[in-house]
Task: inverse folding
């Protein structure tokens, strides 16, 4: 599989100097063509910061302190997104990588019609396009996400939450980007609507062939909808594997804990415990593996040495990676 | 409650205080709080255009809800946002006046508006809110929050030492130990899970008989949700509390509750023992809800299998709710009667107590539709 986006040793900090908080630490991750990559983690694990970092949307005091984000365009040579000039960055955003933000309720401008907001994007990226073809494209997009095109002239408040979220998805896809980042796209929606929208998104991906980075805290949703899952804890990726592998045979104790934090709807009813303790404070990160104070299997090296993300020695080790001293790695990733 | 009672409940093993209403009295299964035909309509402000018309519009938030909370039992109320589940909790807490129906505490009709009557009602029925970031005052310490709850409900005892004991006791009950470490902290110094535990401790400060928990874990991090649910279950068993658990996550209702009730657009559509409702759902809406819940066993690939015709669409407007069954415009199995007559509660017959408000379980109607 061809890579579309390669993240290499990305570091993001909030603040400067001694007081800086390292929100994303040495993250290596590759997004392949046409896949859905799930990024799971609790609040404060750095998953949203990672997404904003790689699109250079971080607001101050967020600073990218190191690393590379290599983007592979369809027709030309790969380049580093972090090194783009302002002008090149404006062209790159939306046309190559689009993002769907968390609260659809708040991401649309309440005083503009849906049609204005959809065609605005086209106007900015392709000023030569005629008004007629812009409108035609916007209608086509609405149809694609399952909204009747005669709602073009509606204001956001006239649409329901689910419809607004669909408009956001349509808007993200309007310039046919290769990569779509979805930051908790359905958390504000009901389960029934969530399933409809995600089902539609998967269908669109098959039709249009874009790749998705899907950020959420709901691991059971990711297992169902993504191809590969990366789990973040304390700013680092602690495990990465195909979705089915994570679900059946997670290696990292945190991934296991996260999986057993969801009561099952089917199968035998069993006692679940969750994970003891609470997520770490990024300003005062524990030494060594940041999960060791909550880990039921912690032993000597955990509190002093940071485990490196690498291929484990298991038979299916080539397709997965884990950062845990319980699973000594044969070859580090990146 | 006297000082003696506080001391008694402070003794190791959380022994039951003697006499008076409060924690630990009564047997498992005793009815504490009952809602009968509970109804709440919120009036809609009339615009200029409607000023001259006689019609008065209202949001039919909750219609004809029946539920019973028993000691030592958890009842889950499941529904989507806008289904009226939080309104039910607020009605039961007497935070809103009801439009119609009755709330009975130990078989007695209660209607309180404020003042002393409300306080004595609140001492027996306490509420836990969804957002522990908003329900604690950021400028006050944990000690202040808990002391206030104890003093208002006269559980603080007579001396400083009694109060200190009661405070320690409360924090120990919600597993925030050692208590000294948390008492003088401010809410922002605690994590979400710890804050929700403080909110629970504050509710326990009143020594209630019933807890109304409105989405108590949905704002918390995934890994600590179960910790809070397990704590509530533990408290239910030790203190013999009646708990109403409001949630949108039907899987957690199965895990935590003894009985599950499903609400749709302001009405109850199905109810029964949690295991029965989640494993053999009877109402088409409950089936839709369960099919829509994320299921890791259904791996990527067969996502859109049987996706069609399962009742897609959205909940209706509650200002002019659909006639007959409120689910009929979305229901894949709707019959002609569904759009005319409001379905009554019908026994399903697979397990005792399992009912659904759906004409599919009325033989005469099904036969009529088959013709």
Result:
């Amino acid at each position: 599989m061809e890579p579309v986006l390669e993240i290499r040793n990305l570091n993001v900090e909030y603040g400067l100097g001694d007081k800086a908080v390292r929100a994303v630490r040495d993250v290596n991750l590759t997004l392949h063509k046409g896949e859905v990559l799930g990024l799971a983690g609790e609040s404060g694990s750095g998953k949203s910061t990672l997404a904003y970092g790689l699109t250079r949307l971080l607001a101050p005091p967020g600073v990218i302190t190191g690393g590379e984000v290599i983007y592979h365009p369809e027709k030309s040579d790969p380049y580093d997104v972090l090194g783009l000039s302002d002008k090149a960055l404006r062209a790159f955003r939306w046309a190559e990588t689009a993002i769907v933000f968390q609260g659809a309720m708040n991401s649309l401008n309440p005083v503009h019609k849906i049609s204005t907001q959809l065609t605005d994007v086209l106007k900015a990226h392709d000023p030569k396009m005629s008004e007629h073809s812009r409108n035609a494209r916007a209608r086509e997009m609405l149809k694609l996400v399952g909204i009747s095109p005669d709602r073009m002239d509606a204001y956001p408040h006239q649409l329901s939450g689910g419809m607004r979220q669909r408009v956001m998805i349509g808007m993200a896809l309007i310039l046919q980007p290769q990569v779509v980042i979805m930051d908790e796209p359905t958390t504000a929606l009901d389960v029934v609507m969530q399933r409809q929208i995600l089902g539609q998104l998967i269908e669109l991906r098959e039709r249009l062939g874009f790749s998705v980075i899907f950020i959420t805290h709901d691991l059971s949703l990711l297992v169902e909808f993504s191809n590969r899952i990366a789990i973040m804890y304390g700013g680092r990726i602690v495990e990465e594997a195909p979705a089915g592998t994570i679900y059946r045979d997670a290696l990292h104790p945190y991934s296991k804990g996260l999986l057993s934090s969801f009561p099952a709807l089917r199968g035998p009813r069993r006692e679940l415990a969750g994970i003891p303790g609470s997520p770490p404070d990024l300003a005062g990160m524990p030494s060594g593996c940041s999960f060791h104070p909550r880990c039921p299997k912690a032993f000597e090296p955990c509190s002093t040495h940071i485990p490196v993300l690498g291929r484990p020695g298991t038979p299916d080790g080539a397709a997965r990676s884990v950062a845990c001293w319980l699973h000594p790695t044969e070859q580090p990733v990146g | 409650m006297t000082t003696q009672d506080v001391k008694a409940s402070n003794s190791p093993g959380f022994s039951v205080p003697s006499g008076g209403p409060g924690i630990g009295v009564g047997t498992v299964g005793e009815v504490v709080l009952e809602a009968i035909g509970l109804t709440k309509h919120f009036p809609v402000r009339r615009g200029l255009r409607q000023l001259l018309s006689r019609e008065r519009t209202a949001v039919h938030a909750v219609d004809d809800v029946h539920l019973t909370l028993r000691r030592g039992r958890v009842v889950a109320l499941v529904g989507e946002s806008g289904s009226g589940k939080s309104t039910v909790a607020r009605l039961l807490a007497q935070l809103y006046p009801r439009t119609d129906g009755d709330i009975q505490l130990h078989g007695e009709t209660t209607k309180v508006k404020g003042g002393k009557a409300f306080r004595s009602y609140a001492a027996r029925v306490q509420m836990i809110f969804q957002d522990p970031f908003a329900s604690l005052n950021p400028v006050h310490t944990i000690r202040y929050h808990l002391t206030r709850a104890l003093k208002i409900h006269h559980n603080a005892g007579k001396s400083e030492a009694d109060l200190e004991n009661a405070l320690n006791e409360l924090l120990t009950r919600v597993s925030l130990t050692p208590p000294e470490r948390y008492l003088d902290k401010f809410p922002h110094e605690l994590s979400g899970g710890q804050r929700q535990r403080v909110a629970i401790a504050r509710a326990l400060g009143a020594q209630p008989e019933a807890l109304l928990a409105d989405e108590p874990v949905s704002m918390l991090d995934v890994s600590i949700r179960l910790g809070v649910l397990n704590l509530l279950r533990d408290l239910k068993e030790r203190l013999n509390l009646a708990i109403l658990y409001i949630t949108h996550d039907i899987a957690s209702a199965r895990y935590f509750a003894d009985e599950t009730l499903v609400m749709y657009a302001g009405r109850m559509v199905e109810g029964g023992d949690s295991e029965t409702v989640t494993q053999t759902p009877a109402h088409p809406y409950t089936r839709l809800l369960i099919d829509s819940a994320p299921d890791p066993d259904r791996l990527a690939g067969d996502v859109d299998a049987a996706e069609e015709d399962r009742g897609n669409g959205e909940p209706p407007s509650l200002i002019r709710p659909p006639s007959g069954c409120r689910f009929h415009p979305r229901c894949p199995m709707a019959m002609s009667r569904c759009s005319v007559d409001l379905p009554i509660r019908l026994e399903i017959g697979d397990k005792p107590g399992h009912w659904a408000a759906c004409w599919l379980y009325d033989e005469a109607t099904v036969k009529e539709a088959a013709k």
